[in-house]
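Task 17 of the worksheet. Students: predict the tertiary structure of the chain below and write it out as structure tokens. Keep your answer in the requested format; marks are given for formatting as well as content.
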Amino acid sequence: MGDQDQLKVERIGGFAGFGGAHLKSRGELSTSELSPADSAALDALFHDNTHAGAANPDGFVYRITRNEQTIEVPEHKVPEAVKNSVQDTLE
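Model answer:
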């Protein structure tokens, strides 16, 4: 993974689809902003595609795109720095 990789992050799901169709939860950050531990955790998530879906049906799932690869990860597996990049907006 290069230092200049950009991550696009979207938080989806949650309790009964909280927020409705007009609330979008998205963020972006550069992988260079991540700590070495968060970067390693993120690399592991991209290499292990067995984590699809939420562990809790009412929990959030994060859709993370790096380069051309997209994964969906339960909230409890996502590094805090990645979660913190997400902002809620009304559209």
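Marker's comment: The chain is about 20% helix and 35% strand. The helical segments are 36-47, 80-83.
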